[in-house]
Amino acid sequence: MGDGAAAQLAKAGVALTALSTLIISHLHVDHTGGLFALLGARIQQHVPGTLVVYGPPGTRQTVAEIETAQRYLADLDHAENTRTTDLAPTLVEVHEITDGSSFVLGDVTVLAAGNTHYGFAPGSADATAFQSLSLRFDMPDRSILYTGDTGPSPAVEQLGHGVDLLVSEIIDPDEELAKTLATRSDIPRYAIPFLRRHFADQHLTAKEVGRLMQRTGAKRLVLTHNAMDAVGIARAGQTIAGLSERPLAFADDLDTW
Description:
This protein has helices spanning about 5-10, 35-45, 60-70, 75-80, 125-130, 155-160, 175-185, 190-200, 205-215, 230-245; strands at about 20-25, 50-55, 90-95, 100-105, 110-115, 135-140, 145, 165-170, 220-225, 250.
């Protein structure tokens, strides 16, 4: 649910009336920025029924505050030329999930595991409050692991054991740091080691993705959350192929698998 998600759903031909469930891996803005538009569009279009949102601790507060910010859409309920009293209400129901959570959606079983995208000390109050989750989807005919944002993680490896499809994030820490510094000359020098550590330790490099393929035994790999240029993509593909012979692809928006 990053910025633009509502527009991309429309491009993919997914009507708001067909959308019943959202699952959010963590609450960084590039994974939540589209929530405001989506929830507001449901109100404006009088989409009936309940949208169920699953996400880590803090999701309930995030959704509640978005709904509060959308109180100025109330004119749609009170304008004299509308008949909203004849329409089913548009509702949102939030379920907060954490490491080890599982739930069932139709014939899909979803399992969650905490990962290493945040650098807080295990067992600390911050580690409890700020969680990033990887998600496994088991269906009658296939299984999928979505890493979300994570660094190397034994828990993610265990969660993805034997899946048919691994949907993994990927990053080139050096390229990402260079691009950041090229566009943000105001970043103080003391912050640079923090940025480098975040990119290197709390995301997955090509080598770590290859190792994840090895350790899960996943049958196929799709790479997302990718900001690399064409040279970086080619280099990353070679690195992964050297560690796993399974098919791999770099995803573009609106691809299907």
